[in-house]
């Protein structure tokens, strides 16, 4: 467990963006929470706090992009993908302006603030926008790469971050590629395809199942769109069972994206979904929320056992 | 810098041509928005042929001025103006709203040469224009950004979010122009959503407010000149216009916001527009 995802994001933003005159950062009065304040301190002339006005912020970001800037627009995931959505649709998706929509506090990570502040539909919403890439940060090293990639790649994209720290998955020299999932653990009986917080839980579930004699492969699918079609099909073919795991509603997120690939290609496989079961959670300690709402290694292991 | 009489007459001549051509195309296509296209005619003409530093032969110049037609449904008039500027052949107007056309129903920056910003959903064009203005300022450019808004569009809350931000960031190189025709889709602005004293509203949001006659080229150009003098604060031009201007039965009628033009209506409209042209 290293630094929080939001802190890793802010440090990367400064590392790759502070001396790049193309990079501008916008925030909607939550810079202390999203940690974009770290960029403000490093490059105050290219930081714009627009107040509590996410719709204005994402549209302003598109304007910056239209004159050659690389704007990072920051707010809580639930608000940037709701209030900020109109211009993400018209200017990011349709006009293909390279705005980087950054959703801090993904999933239930703003746990004590309750369902109004949880972000459990953001992946579904942003994944449905043509031309918009979608990534879910899975650890601090991956987060660092995502920021660098966002600056280098001229696409509009949604980066889903977290308030919290996730288990370390990668060494600092790990390399990533857009559209390529990472196989973190080999296995032959089942594959868990996970993202974000749930990737760590997937590894723990695989360890539990190993003790029961079940060999489980684990994939970190941080790249939700484009997704790694070839890897999904190969896992289905080689292990026959796929369980997806995400800190998101069971509808429209990673699980749906994986199922779309399998169904679209006519690839036979048993498929199970672990995520929020189409309900709103409640407020409380993050770990207890994860337990209660099925976002745990135990829930993943149980799903695998049922479908074996 | 006041507009010369000769230049004013040239722009007035252009406006008469633009109105006829736009009505012709909207009749031919049987789709599109006549009312708001006719009301914004002089505003776009004054912008592209007088105020804004935009030319087709240096369309990618980073220091050019930018225009955002936030009331994107007036696209037909924008297209006619851009064609006259040399961004494409005016004959391409006939493809408006057809399959494979570069002239989409609402402005699309990657389809149509000369369109600086995609628009259509009302309420977000002013924010986009502000982002462009601040981005240009980051690069030390002195380019101006003009955002053309509908008065009905001012119902959208994001407009006022953008107003607050533009004042906060001192965007004095941003000019908003309101096509103040007093009519929106469902009725008059007074009936649908009374906006009160618009000048007072913009002023208390920290903007310099300039009123003008939005069908009088000299009045518009004077207002645009005045807006360029603004220091430290953004400016808005409230341009009084008539929805459907130039076609008697369309004037002031919300029913002509986006209605196909019938045969008899087309004949009468062209008669009126050509009679006007004959007076020049």
Essential attributes:
heterodimer; A: 308 residues; alpha/beta; Rossmann fold; 2 domains; 5-stranded mixed beta sheet; 13 helices; B: 280 residues; 5-stranded parallel beta sheet; 42% helix
Summarize the SSE layout with pairings.
The complex is a heterodimer of chains A (308) and B (280).
Chain A: H1 5-17, E1 23-27, H2 31-34, H3 37-42, E2 47-49, H4 54-66, E3 70-76, H5 77-80, H6 85-94, E4 100-104, H7 122-127, E5 133-136, H8 140-152, E6 157-160, E7 182-185, E8 190-194, H9 197-211, E9 216-220, E10 223-225, H10 229-239, E11 241-249, H11 254-265, E12 270-276, H12 286-292, H13 297-307
Parallel strand pairs in A: 1-2, 1-3, 3-4, 4-6, 5-6, 8-9, 8-11, 11-12
Antiparallel strand pairs in A: 5-10, 7-9
Helix pairs in contact in A: 1-8, 4-6, 9-13, 10-11
Chain B: H1 5-29, H2 34-39, H3 41-51, E1 66-69, H4 75-85, H5 125-138, E2 145-150, H6 157-168, E3 174-180, E4 183-184, E5 187-188, H7 189-192, H8 198-204, E6 208-213, H9 217-228, E7 235-240, H10 263-278
Parallel strand pairs in B: 1-2, 2-3, 3-7, 6-7
Antiparallel strand pairs in B: 4-5
Describe the model.
The complex is a heterodimer of chains A (308) and B (280). Chain A folds into two domains: 5-160, 3-Layer(aba) Sandwich (Rossmann fold), CATH 3.40.50; 182-307, 3-Layer(aba) Sandwich (Rossmann fold). Helices cover 41% and strands 20% of the residues of chain A. Chain A is built from 13 helices and twelve strands. In chain A, strand 11, helix 11 (254-265) and strand 12 form a beta-alpha-beta unit. The radius of gyration of chain A is 18 Å and the shape is globular. Chain B is globular. In chain B, helix 3 packs parallel to helix 4. The model of chain B has no long low-confidence stretch (mean pLDDT 96). Chain B is an alpha/beta fold. Helices cover 42% and strands 12% of the residues of chain B. Chain B has ten helices and seven strands. In chain B, the strands form two sheets. Chain B has a five-stranded parallel beta sheet with strand order 1-2-3-7-6, with helices on both faces. In chain B, strands 4-5 form a two-stranded antiparallel sheet.
